[in-house]
């Protein structure tokens, strides 16, 4: 077993890009130091996976988790869209914030596309490039070769290569480095637990920085895609960007420490703690959802003839918790008159809250449900 060396800085045209070492090798990742926290992370992630399998109609709720992940992952990159804005239609967003809103919607689409694509395509740079192309369509970065590996040098921080905080490897190094990441993810002979592999792969991807724009979001998407691809998760219910966003400086510092001192162990401790905290939070959210679901279903069971349509509206609200009468009418194929009567009943029962105060074009929100994800 080789001691881990993160790589080296090389001189090139007056600046010093970092050339990371390959990870698909027999490296001593110091797993003995991680055994306790790894056991905890494995336990809580397994519990979350089992919990999600037992919940009826879990796919309704997963859409909200994807929205939360997209919001937090984009916030790390500097967007200002809130969760409430992310579940709103574009007409409700102030013009100056619509670009940020579109970035979040793109990320939601990229998540859903990637998870579905895994059913027919192995986790690979091809899949990540397809996701990247969706991520940048029509938003910031749309002119920075969406879906293509960079052919020019990029940098992080600073105003140029001369004063950059960090310079990723040169473009001509990328094919070998990206092939190494793919081989690492699919190498079953390496005795490295899947959760550890996910953490190492995320670090390596961020260090390689293969795209001109959007690397952070794709790198975080890589985590969930890998855990699904190897069967650790059956559904996309672990979204760790909330933890990274709340501990942003520790996230950056832990990644930087690997390059500065070959200390992959510290990054993995931080990453595994994120798995634990995120799993616990998601389980708690599912428990709250089940309690709310039971309470709301009891209310609508007493609505008489409206009960069948009330149940259909409730199912719609689990994936679209902020809507208007026109949306309900279209999705449920009901007349506007019937929809307005149904919405009025939901307001009277305390299920929906009407936020606008308008006589027309009213929007309603499933407030108790949205609170769980805020």
Task: Give an account of the 3D structure.
Helices cover 57% and strands 5% of the residues. It has 374 residues and is mainly α. Helix 2 runs parallel beside helix 12, helix 4 packs antiparallel against helix 5 and helix 6 runs antiparallel to helix 7. The protein has a 3-stranded antiparallel β-sheet. Strands 1-4 form a two-stranded parallel ribbon. Strands 2-3 form a two-stranded antiparallel sheet. The protein is globular and about 75 Å long. The model has no long low-confidence stretch (mean pLDDT 90). It has 15 helices and 7 strands. It folds into 2 domains: 283 residues, Fido-like domain (Fic-like fold, Orthogonal Bundle), CATH 1.10.3290; 73 residues, Arc Repressor Mutant, subunit A (Orthogonal Bundle), CATH 1.10.10.10.
CATH domain topology of the largest domain: Fic-like fold
Strand content: under 5%
Q: Specify Rg, calculated over alpha carbons.
A: 23 Å
Spatial strand sequence of the major β-sheet: 5-7-6
Number of helices: 15
Q: What low-confidence regions span 5 or more consecutive residues with pLDDT below 50? A: none
Quick one: biggest sheet? 3 strands, antiparallel
Say how many strands there are.
Answer: 7
Percent range of helical residues: 55-70%
Note the main attributes of this structure.
two-stranded parallel ribbon; 374 residues; three-stranded antiparallel beta sheet; Fic-like fold; Arc Repressor Mutant, subunit A; mainly alpha
Topology:
Elements: E1 2-3, E2 7-9, E3 18-20, E4 27-28, H1 35-54, H2 58-76, H3 83-86, H4 98-117, H5 125-135, H6 174-186, H7 194-208, H8 215-229, H9 241-246, H10 248-261, H11 264-300, H12 307-319, E5 322-324, H13 325-332, H14 336-348, E6 353-354, E7 363-365, H15 367-373
Parallel strand pairs: 1-4
Antiparallel strand pairs: 2-3, 5-7, 6-7
Helix pairs in contact: 1-11, 2-4, 2-12, 4-5, 4-8, 6-7, 7-8, 7-11, 10-11, 11-15, 13-14
């Amino acid at each position: 077993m080789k001691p881990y060396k993160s790589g080296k800085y090389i001189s090139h045209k007056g600046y010093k890009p970092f050339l990371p070492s390959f990870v698909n090798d027999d490296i001593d990742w110091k797993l003995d130091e991680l055994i306790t926290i790894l056991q905890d992370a494995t336990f809580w992630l397994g519990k979350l996976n089992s919990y999600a399998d037992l919940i009826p109609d879990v796919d309704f709720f997963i859409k909200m988790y994807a929205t939360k992940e997209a919001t937090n992952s984009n916030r790390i990159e500097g967007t200002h869209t809130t969760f409430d804005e992310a579940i709103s239609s574009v007409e409700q967003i102030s013009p100056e914030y619509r670009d940020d809103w579109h970035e979040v919607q793109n990320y939601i689409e990229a998540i859903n596309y990637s998870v579905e694509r895994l059913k027919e395509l192995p986790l690979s740079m091809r899949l990540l490039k397809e996701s990247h192309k969706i991520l940048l369509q029509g938003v910031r970065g749309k002119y920075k070769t969406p879906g293509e590996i960079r052919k020019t040098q990029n940098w992080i921080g600073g105003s140029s290569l001369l004063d950059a905080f960090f310079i990723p490897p040169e473009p001509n190094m990328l094919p070998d480095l990206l092939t190494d990441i793919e081989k690492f993810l699919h190498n079953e002979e390496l005795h490295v637990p899947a959760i550890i592999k996910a953490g190492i792969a995320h670090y390596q991807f961020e260090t390689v920085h293969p795209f001109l724009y959007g690397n952070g979001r794709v790198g975080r998407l890589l985590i969930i895609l890998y855990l699904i691809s190897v069967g650790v998760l059956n559904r996309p219910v672990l979204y760790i960007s909330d933890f990274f966003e709340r501990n942003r400086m520790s996230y950056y510092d832990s990644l930087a420490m690997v390059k500065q001192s070959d200390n992959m162990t510290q990054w993995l401790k931080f990453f595994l703690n994120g798995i634990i905290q995120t799993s616990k939070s998601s389980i708690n959210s599912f428990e709250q959802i089940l309690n709310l679901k039971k309470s709301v279903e009891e209310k609508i069971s007493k609505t008489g003839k409206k009960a069948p349509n009330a149940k259909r509206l409730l199912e719609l609200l689990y994936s679209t918790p902020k809507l208007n009468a026109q949306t309900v009418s279209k999705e449920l194929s009901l007349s506007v008159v019937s929809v307005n009567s149904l919405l009025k009943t939901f307001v009277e029962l305390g299920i929906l809250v009407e936020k606008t105060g308008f006589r027309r074009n009213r929007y309603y929100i499933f407030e108790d449900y949205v609170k769980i994800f805020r």
